[in-house]
Amino acid sequence: MSDLNKLTIAEARDLLRAGDVTSVALTEACLAVIESAGKLNAFVHHTPDLALERAKAADARIAAGDAPAMCGIPVGIKDLFCTAGVASQAASGILEGFKPEYESTVSAQLRDAGAVMLGKLNMDEFAMGSSNESSVYGNAVNPWKVDARDLTPGGSSGGSAAAVAADLCLAATGTDTGGSIRQPAAFTGTVGIKPTYGRCSRWGIVAFASSLDQAGPMTKTVRDAAIMLEAMCGHDPKDSTSADLPVPDLEAMLTGDIRGTKIGIPREYRMDGTPAEIEALWAKGAEMLRDAGAEIVDISLPHTKYALPAYYVIAPAEASSNLARYDGVRYGHRATLGPGDGITQMYEKTRAEGFGPEVQRRVMIGTYVLSAGFYDAYYNRARKVRTLIKRDFEQAFAAGIDAILTPATPSSAFGLGEIAEADPVQMYLNDVFTVTVNLAGLPGIAVPAGLDAQGLPLGLQLIGRPWEEGPLLRTAHVLETAAGFVSKPSKWW
Amino acid sequence: MSEIDLDTARKVAHLARIAVPDENLPALAQELSQMLTFMEQLNEVDVEGVEPMTSVTPMRLKRRADGVTDGNMQAKILSNAPDAREGFFAVPKVVE
To answer: Within 10 Å of residue A17's Cβ, how many Cβ atoms?
Structure first.
C-alpha cells in the first residue's frame, strides 16, 4: 500500500484492526516523509527509534485484540508538551537542553492509548505568536504555496498544522490560548478544535496563560478530531482546573443530523477590512447549515471588540507570572556570568539571553499591568471586561443558540516576514475571531471551507456551548461534508 | 495615548528581571506605549458593578487529604539543573 502517511486516523484505525496494515509500516511511511520535509521545518526533534519501538508495541497490542482507537496511529507532539526523556523546549532558547523526567498528562494518555510519537513539532516561542516566526528553531513553513514566497502556517501551533497538512503524520497535538490551534488549522486547510476550558489536563504542558490555555487535536478531518480529542481529554487530579466530567463517545455523535439546531451569526464579527471573499464564505457556510436543516439566527455579542485588548492584558499578565520560573537555576539555560555578578545579574542576563523579543515584550507588558498603581486600571478592568464577554455568550446560549458560526481568521496565510516586527499589535489582530472563545472558556473548532482567489485555504469557526464538544463536532462534520474541501497542497518541499 | 518614558521602561525591565541595554530602552518604551494604547480601548466599557472574572468555568476546587503523594527523587529533580552540586542547586553567592 502506498502513501500510508496520507491516511486519516479513522482509515488507519480500520486498516490496523482488520490486519491490513501494521503500525510499523505506518510509522515508517511517516518517518520517511518527515526525513525529506526539512524545508517545512515542522519537526524539530525527531524520535524515530522511540517511534518504531512504540509502533511494534502497538502492533502487538492490536494483534492481542486490545486496541483503542488511537492504537498504532503515528502523531506529532507540539514542543510545548513535556515528553519524558525527549527535548521539550517550548521553542525557546531558555529551555535549551531540557529533557523532562515526566510526561504531560495529554501526551501520556495518547501514549497509553497506543499512539506513536514521531517527534516534537515547531511552534512560536512559549506559544506566543500567530505566525511561528518567534521560534528558536526558525520559521515553520506552510506546505501551501502560490508563488515564490514562503507562507506562514500560522501560529502558535504552526509546526503541527504544517505537519498535518503535508501528511508528515496522521495528526498532531496543538494548544490554543488565543487561537493557536484554530488559526493555523485555517491557514493550512486542516481541522483544529480547542475544547472547553478544563476538558484537557494542562499538567505537563509548558504554561503560557493558565486561565486560557487548552490542548486539542489538529487533524485532517472532523471525525479524526473527535477520535483524537476523546483520547486526550478527561479528568486529571494533577490539574486543579481539570473538569471531573465523563467524556462522551464523541465519534458516535457525528450523526450527520443537525435538523433544528440553532446557529447564531454574530453581527459584531462583520469587521471593517475583512476581505469580501471571507464574508462570502461565511454566508455560504450559513447557507450550507441551513440547507442541512439548521435554523440561522442573527445574534449580537456586543463586547466582541474589547476581546483583543482584554486578552492582551490578561494573557501577558499571566505569562509574566508563569515565566518567572525561568531563572537559570532549575532547568534550561543559564548565562555565563562576569566577575562579581550576583544572583540578580544571573536572572537578568539569563532571561535576556534565553527569551526572544516577543516573549520579552509580553513578560514586560504583563509585569507593567500587574505592577502597583496599574493593577486596577489594566488587569482588573480587563478581568471585568472578560466577565462581560462571557456574559454575551451566555445570553446567546440562554436564548436557545446551540452554536455560533464565524470566520476563523481575517485573512488567508500571509508571507513569512510580511507583518512588520515593528508593530506587534498588527500581528495580534490575527486572533480577532478566535480570542473571544478562550476568554469565555468555550469549545471552538476551525473547519476548512474553501479556497481564496489565490488558491489558499480558508476556514470557518464554530463555537459551541460549554462541555458540548459532541454537538459542536456534529455540526462541524455537517459543515465539512457540505463544503467538500478536498484540496491538498502540491508537494514542492 | 499612553507614553512610557525611559525610566519606566528601565524599571519594568528590572521588575521582570530581563537585562535591557540602555540603547534598547527607547524602542522598548515605544513598543510598550503602543501596546498600552491598544489596551486603553477597555476604558470605553462600562464595568460598573461587574465582578472581575476569577474562574472561567464555575467550579469549586477539589480537595484531597493533606498527605505526601510523591517524593524521594532528588536526582530527577536536579537532572536538568545548569549547575547542581552535592545534591543542591548551585547559584552565585547571595549573602555577603
So the answer is: 15
